[in-house]
Specification:
The complex is a heterodimer.
Chain A: E1 2-7, H1 15-24, E2 29-36, H2 39-52, E3 54-61, E4 66-72
Parallel strand pairs in A: 1-2
Antiparallel strand pairs in A: 2-4, 3-4
Chain B: H1 11-30, H2 41-51, H3 66-80, E1 87-88, H4 92-109, H5 113-121, H6 126-146, E2 155-156, H7 159-162, H8 164-178, E3 187-188, E4 191-192, H9 205-222, H10 226-236, H11 240-259, H12 276-293, H13 297-305, H14 309-327, H15 341-358
Helix pairs in contact in B: 1-9, 1-11, 2-14, 3-8, 3-9, 3-13, 4-12, 4-14, 4-15, 5-6, 5-11, 6-10, 6-12, 10-11, 12-15, 13-14
Classes of the chains: A alpha+beta, B mainly alpha.
Chain lengths: 74, 364
C-alpha cells in the first residue's frame, strides 16, 4: 500500500483527470494526493472518485492551487 | 467531512443550467438575433471582427454585446466563488493558432458547436452532419491526449494580468455605447454596422447583455462545455457534460416548437448551406482544435473570464481568423463554401496534425 502524489498544477482539462485515472490504476495505490489549479478539475475529480471507489478525505485551498487527499474505499 | 459543494456541477445543476441557457438563446432569437443564432461564439466574434473593420464583409458587422457579456458573466462568477485565478504561459502562441484553425473550420460549417446545437433544435438537419464532424474531430484529439499530448503547464500570474481580457471586453461594450448604430448607416464613428444580412439582426442591447451575462455565470459554475461533453464521453465514458448539452437541445427544441420556429430539413435553412462534405470537415477541423485547446469556444471565453490568459489568446486568435476568413474568401455563405474554403480546411488540418504530433511529451 502506498501513497501516490500527483501534481497537475498549471495543467488544464482533461489532463488532471487523465493523471487521476492513470494514478488509480496503479495496483498498490491506496492513498492519493493531487494538487491542481484548474477550477473544473475539482468537480471532475470528485465525480471520478465517486464512480471508481475512492473517497475524498480533505480539500485544502491555497491562494493559487488546491490540494486534495483521497483514499480507496476498502 | 465538510466540502465546498458546487450544486451547478452536479447532474441536475448542469441540466438545469443547459436548459436555462437554451431558453435565453432561443429568447435572443425571438427578440431579434438571426435564426438559430441566439448564441454563436464563432458568428459573434466574426461580427465583432467586421464591426472593427478587420474584415469588410458588409452583412456581418456588429459589436455583439453577447461576447463581452459571456466573458464578464464568467468573470463575476469566478470572483464570487473564489475561482478567479490569473494564469498564463501554457503554449500561448499555439493556442492562438488553434483558435485560428477553430474559427476557419467553424466558418466553413457556419457556426460554432453552440450554434450547431441551436440549428439542430430548429430542425436544421445539416447540423447533424456538423455535429458528426465535431465528434470526429474531438475523437482525433483524444487519440493524441492518450498518447501524451500536452501543451504544458501555465503558471500563476499577477492579479492584474487576469483583468486584461475583462477590460478588453468592457472596451468593446464602450465602443458600442459611444458609437451606437444610426438607422440605415453602415458606419457610426469608427464602428462598422450592417444595414442588411445577419449582422443587421440583433436583439435589443440590454437583452443581449443581460442574457449572456447569465449564460456566462451559469457556464462558469456548471463547467458547461460542448466539446468537453463529447471528449469526456469518448475518453472517460463520462456522461456528465453530455447531460448539459442534451438539456440545452431539448429545451431549445421545445421552446422553438412553442414559438412555431421548427422547420425540419436540409434545404433553405437560415444562414446554412447543404454541402455535407464541408459541413463535416469544417466542424471536424474546429472540433480537433477545440479538443487540443481543452475547450469549446464558449469554454475558452469562460476560462478567460476565470483569469486564464491562454484562453484569452484562443479567443483573440478566433477573432483574427474571422478577418482572414472573410478577406481570403474562406468562409461559407448560404450559397455554399467560400472560393478558398476547401484549401483553408486542408491547410488547417495539416497544421493541427503538426501541432498534435510535436506536443506529444511521453509515450503512454
Amino acid at each position: 500500500m502506498s501513497k501516490v502524489i500527483i501534481d497537475v498544477r498549471g495543467l488544464a482539462c482533461p489532463e488532471p483527470l487523465i493523471a487521476f485515472t492513470n494514478a488509480i490504476k496503479q495496483a498498490d495505490a491506496a492513498e492519493l494526493e493531487i494538487s491542481f489549479d484548474c477550477p473544473a478539475a475539482r468537480d471532475n475529480i470528485i465525480r471520478a472518485a465517486d464512480s471508481t471507489g475512492w473517497t475524498v478525505v480533505s480539500v485544502a485551498d491555497t491562494l493559487n492551487y488546491t490540494v486534495m487527499n483521497l483514499t480507496k474505499k476498502s | 467531512m465538510q466540502m465546498k459543494k458546487n450544486w451547478f456541477a452536479g447532474g441536475s445543476g448542469i441540466a438545469v443550467s443547459g436548459a436555462i441557457m437554451a431558453v435565453i438563446a432561443v429568447g435572443l432569437q425571438y427578440f431579434g438575433n438571426p435564426a438559430n443564432m441566439g448564441l454563436c461564439v464563432a458568428c459573434f466574434e466574426r461580427d465583432i471582427a467586421g464591426a472593427l473593420g478587420l474584415h469588410r464583409a458588409e452583412v456581418v458587422q456588429y459589436l455583439r454585446p453577447e461576447i463581452p457579456a459571456l466573458l464578464l458573466g464568467s468573470f463575476l462568477a469566478a470572483l464570487c466563488f473564489g475561482e478567479f485565478k490569473p494564469r498564463a504561459g501554457s503554449a500561448p502562441l499555439v493556442r492562438f493558432i488553434l483558435g485560428m484553425c477553430a474559427m476557419i473550420g467553424a466558418l466553413v460549417f457556419l457556426g460554432c458547436p453552440w450554434r450547431a446545437l441551436l440549428r439542430l433544435a430548429g430542425g436544421d438537419l445539416n447540423a447533424v452532419v456538423g455535429l458528426a464532424g465535431l465528434i470526429a474531430g474531438v475523437g482525433i484529439g483524444t487519440v493524441f491526449f492518450r498518447r501524451g499530448y500536452s501543451l504544458g503547464r501555465s503558471t500563476p500570474q499577477h492579479t492584474g494580468a487576469g483583468y486584461i481580457m475583462p477590460a478588453l471586453m468592457l472596451g468593446i461594450l464602450a465602443l458600442l455605447l459611444v458609437f451606437p448604430q444610426v438607422a440605415g448607416e453602415g458606419k457610426s464613428g469608427v464602428v462598422f454596422y450592417s444595414v442588411k444580412g445577419p449582422g443587421s439582426m440583433h436583439a435589443p442591447f440590454l437583452y443581449s447583455l443581460g442574457g449572456a451575462l447569465v449564460v456566462g455565470f451559469l457556464a462558469q459554475r456548471s463547467r458547461f462545455c460542448t466539446m468537453g461533453a463529447f471528449r469526456d464521453l469518448l475518453m472517460f465514458r463520462h456522461f456528465h457534460l453530455l447531460l448539459g448539452i442534451l438539456a440545452f437541445v431539448a429545451a431549445a427544441f421545445v421552446l422553438n416548437l412553442v414559438l412555431g420556429k421548427v422547420s425540419t430539413g436540409f434545404a433553405n435553412q437560415p444562414v446554412a448551406h447543404t454541402n455535407h462534405l464541408w459541413n463535416f470537415l469544417g466542424m471536424l477541423t474546429a472540433g480537433w482544435a477545440f479538443a487540443l485547446a481543452g475547450g469549446c469556444p464558449g469554454r475558452q471565453i469562460f476560462m478567460a473570464g476565470e483569469g486564464d490568459a491562454d484562453g484569452g489568446l484562443f479567443v483573440l486568435g478566433m477573432i483574427v481568423a474571422a478577418a482572414f476568413a472573410h478577406n481570403f474568401e474562406l468562409a461559407s455563405s448560404p450559397t455554399g463554401i467560400g472560393a478558398n474554403g476547401d484549401m483553408a480546411v486542408y491547410f488547417c488540418l495539416a497544421v493541427l496534425l503538426c501541432l498534435s504530433l510535436i506536443h506529444i511529451r511521453k509515450v503512454a
